[in-house]
Amino acid sequence: MAKELDFLTKRSVDYSKWYNELVVKADLAEQSDVRGCMVIKPYGYAIWEKMQRILDDMFKATGVQNAYFPLLIPKSFLSKEAEHVEGFAKECAVVTHYRLKTNETHDGVVVDPSAKLEEELIIRPTSETIIWNTYKNWIHSYRDLPLLCNQWCNVMRWEMRTRLFLRTSEFLWQEGHTAHATREEAEERAQQMLKVYANFAEKYMAVPVVQGVKSETERFAGALDTYTIEAMMQDGKALQSGTSHFLGQNFGKAFDVQFLNKENKPEYAWATSWGVSTRLMGALIMTHSDDNGLVLPPALAPIQVVIIPIGGKPEQMEAVNAAVAPIVEQLQQMGISVKYDNADNKRPGFKFADYELKGVPVRLVLGARDLENGTIEVMRRDTLEKESRQIEGIAEYVKQLLDEIQENIFQKAVKFRDEHIYECDNYEDFKERVKDGGFFLCHWDGTAETEAKIKEDTQATIRCVPFNVEQTPGVDMVSGKPAKCRVLIARSY
Amino acid sequence: MAKELDFLTKRSVDYSKWYNELVVKADLAEQSDVRGCMVIKPYGYAIWEKMQRILDDMFKATGVQNAYFPLLIPKSFLSKEAEHVEGFAKECAVVTHYRLKTNETHDGVVVDPSAKLEEELIIRPTSETIIWNTYKNWIHSYRDLPLLCNQWCNVMRWEMRTRLFLRTSEFLWQEGHTAHATREEAEERAQQMLKVYANFAEKYMAVPVVQGVKSETERFAGALDTYTIEAMMQDGKALQSGTSHFLGQNFGKAFDVQFLNKENKPEYAWATSWGVSTRLMGALIMTHSDDNGLVLPPALAPIQVVIIPIGGKPEQMEAVNAAVAPIVEQLQQMGISVKYDNADNKRPGFKFADYELKGVPVRLVLGARDLENGTIEVMRRDTLEKESRQIEGIAEYVKQLLDEIQENIFQKAVKFRDEHIYECDNYEDFKERVKDGGFFLCHWDGTAETEAKIKEDTQATIRCVPFNVEQTPGVDMVSGKPAKCRVLIARSY
Q: Taking a C-beta distance cutoff of 8 angstroms, is the pair B251, B222 a contact?
């Protein structure tokens, strides 16, 4: 079987190539003929749908409602918040016309020059501006607050260098936008949503994350604080997996969203926004998968269990089919998604490799000889361990095994992450070691200058000031000045 | 209470105005500041989400998988299918540039003229072209077929005159795109999906529909046959609520999607596409609602039951709260979504009017006097009938009542529809009567000329050749020529 999987580049040979090949070969996504835009294939989309459903329920449990705002944003809206325009009104898709017409040779279409828009429209790179322009009409009194909206949608940022799921010009995401009567409530909401993201990443994706707050340089354009979850990939690089922003009154002021407080005095509303995107797919893939293909956490696997018969004579196949039917039924009754693949136009060996590539957590194999013995072969994708079990009670065993796999891949990722977090206070040492990846906890003087120097020297950036690190006094490893805090530094995607 | 509802224009006074006001006042949607694009507000979106979830399950039960294809389509793709380009490459949003830059006065942004795209990109008005361009790489053998993909997404058609939900420049929809090895299989799939739409409309939306096939003039651009479901609104106008297209090999040929059949010979793939959109919201609203506001079918109501206490002294309110708690719990356990509105900053009369406006199917009211008698007031939104019931067993009663309301509003709509379908073979008569709305079953000679004349004279169009009408011989009411079939003619949205 190893032979059949030779086509996937090994991680140790070229991690980046391994990732690119895996995404395509496991049928998750592919490049489209539109520059920088991907096609998410059914198998990849099925994982994303599972993520969406779970996150959506988690959002709603905190009182959030879904809504939908326009795809297109008038150009002038982008300029209303001074910092926001710097960050977002740059690499954008611009709609300038609203009509095509048949060309002179009648074999194609051209843009109709008479259908030029008075004001250009931008495909949303994020929706703070259009949403706060709408909130202006929804918010009048403290009774209208808090306003907690989310939308699941597509957004577009014109990226020069794209990679499937990690950085694409168009991507799918959710963006939550909340409005509050007080600063405290908005800050709490921003942190609450970060915790939702962290819980989701750890509990469902089995991806451990470091929670923290961004440095000023790395903040969202227009935010007073950006909170982040940072995950470590198997090459030691960081992947920013979700962010939640406390926006202060910046958008309230820019779009004149005022409300009458309990004392009947006008105040500007306080804002948060928070989002995760199809980038999470990249985090999922790169955290767990191996040289045989995807390793999916059972909680997000579209197919949790695959059952493959080992063919024999037709009457043997009938007996196998008959033995498998009750197992399928029992698993389905337990809410487990199971596929019985008895297609006869593919050899078992091909099926084995294919479901390994697709990351199906548990494989059951049943042949004529197993039937005689009342046994069934169980393979778990995370460790590739095989064992023979009694058919009797196999459904309960599989259910328990799925939980065990979920926990195991999480613990494995935690262990890897923890083994690659280093305290480091020597810059020469840092510069050498950061090349091999890992998260570095370093003292920082809090200036943008040292931050820029680190980035220039090493390509590494301050990922965050982590919440869970005890802050002790020290000196900045670059400037030698007294440190403001210990920060997490890493190269990143 | 009637007084408090005066703000909604009566249907009999101005049906169109009633609709526009209702959509906004019931918090379903509103116009945005982007021409022709709407904001779907949380209450409206909650209904759309319920529709999506149910339809998605119905699609998946027929083997369909979800996927996602790019928002932007290269201009040249639109010209590849000759008829398609005529129908769709017209009123489109055109992306010509990919960058903005700060203006000279540093107080705004302008389009960067150096960032002009070599080929313009069109925001998808529908995705046949980009999807079949992708299918080319997915389909090689008959073993790859059928390919059954759907996507939930936004699309854009630059509309000059827009109305919330009914016709907006951007709208949300699903578009299914299937590829098949044979003509028969594709035709069956197109009809199968129409039946899914019809079942959904009748069973969940409680909207009766006429199923049929479009005339050539009214076909989707690029289709060999367009199947449709047509619903009748309360003003007697038709609303096309969903369409399913048999596309033949048009897109297979245009994008060179060939597969090797079982005899190892190349053939072009056969196609279907089918979609429903946020337009369904318009059908839902206009079929059932009345002068007091929305009437929602229980199957799609975000809040199925609202419970309102009649306040008294604080100790009485406590007793009411205590009596309501087990009712809420029982209803929730039955899977019924219930809201207990004991907010003390609004009077009961205001709440009554508001939940009527929002179409909540069942209202329960409990006051101190009820408590003494062990009774509770039940109001059903569809008939506005009130009755006093024992609290004991109220949850079971409400559950049954919700089913009854669902059935009642459907039957009411069926009755209305059937009373306004007329056989008509006299054109003078037709021209007079069609002004008042209704569906007219008329003999038609099958020519585009008479079709055009009817439209010009009366604004009415051939909605479809209905499936369930016995076709008898006759003469065309306009031309006097022998009829090809009896068709359904109506004015429409």
A: yes
pLDDT of A7-24, one tens digit each?
A: 899 999 999 999 999 999
* β-bridge mates for residue A176, sequence order: A150, A274
Q: Which residues pair with A490 in a beta bridge?
A: A461
ipTM of the complex model: 0.96
Measured CA to CA, the distance from residue B450 to residue B455 in angstroms comes to 9
Report CB contact under 8 Å: B123, A71: yes
Q: What is the domain-level CATH number for residue B457?
A: 3.30.110.30
The number of helix segments (H) and strand segments (E) in chain B equals 14, 25
The 10 Å Cβ neighbour count of residue B476 is: 20
Residues A357 and A439 in one domain: no
pLDDT confidence band for A470 (50 / 70 / 90): confident
Q: Do B90 and A96 touch (CB under 8 A)?
A: no
**Domain shared by A375 and A279, yes or no:** no
- Cβ contacts below 8 Å, chain A against chain B, sum to 182
Same domain (yes/no): B412, B430:
no
Last residue of a domain, one of A288, A318, A342: A288
Domain containing A476 equals: 422-490
Q: Given an 8 Å threshold on Cβ–Cβ distance, is B67 in contact with A94? A: no
User: Are A284 and A308 within one domain?
Assistant: no
CB within 8 Å: B69 and A39: yes
Q: At B438, is the secondary structure helix, strand, or coil? A: coil
Query: Does A108 contact B at CB distance below 8 Å?
Result: yes
pTM listed for this prediction = 0.96
Residues 450-489 of B with CB under 8 A from A: none
**How many structural domains are present in chain B?**
3
Q: How far apart are CA A412 and CA B15, in angstroms?
A: 64
Do B259 and B305 belong to one domain?
Answer: no
